[in-house]
Structures are given as structure tokens and as C-alpha cells.
Design a protein that fits this description.
mainly alpha; 54% helix; globular
Length: 50
């Protein structure tokens, strides 16, 4: 979850978003809780062949 959180912050910054100190201090678990609260489905798919 921490990697996804950092990726989200990175993508937001690359696209010109201003990321507040509060948003940076949110942390990966609170970030994922907010994502779920908003109804965003996050799925991790493993496409590797056995």
C-alpha cells in the first residue's frame, strides 16, 4: 500500500497538482481507506505465467 500511495503522490505532482502537507502526512493506510470510501476499486493483477 505504501508503494501505491507514493505512486499516487508522484503522479499527482507530475500532473501539476499541489500536494498539501496534510495530504503528504496522510499515510498509505489512511490513503487506501479514503480510496475505498470513495468507491474506487483497487485491484492488483498478477499476469505472470507459471
Amino acid at each position: 500500500m505504501a508503494s501505491l500511495y507514493r505512486l499516487a503522490l508522484s503522479i499527482a505532482a507530475e500532473n501539476g497538482s499541489v500536494i498539501t502537507t496534510g495530504a503528504r502526512g496522510l499515510g498509505p493506510y489512511a490513503f487506501m481507506a479514503e480510496v475505498r470510501r470513495r468507491g474506487v476499486a483497487v485491484k492488483f493483477l498478477d499476469h505472470q505465467e507459471p
